[in-house]
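Revision sheet: structure tokens.
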Amino acid sequence: MLRNGLEPWHLLVVALVVVLVFGSKRLPDTARALGKSLRILKSETRAMKREGAQEPAPRPASTGDAPAVRDSA
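Predicted:
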């Protein structure tokens, strides 16, 4: 059913709809804002990966560390 899901004329229709919705004057500003947001997202994910690689993984608490409490009844 969806053998050729995205043909070149589909992209042309989508581009035309985007121009009609946003207007040709707002498209450069919108694209610039989107690019800036993607750069910020990319730098933040890189920073998170670096922080994760530098910090050692926390050790899981084992049950043998805590003293056992006995019921004296």
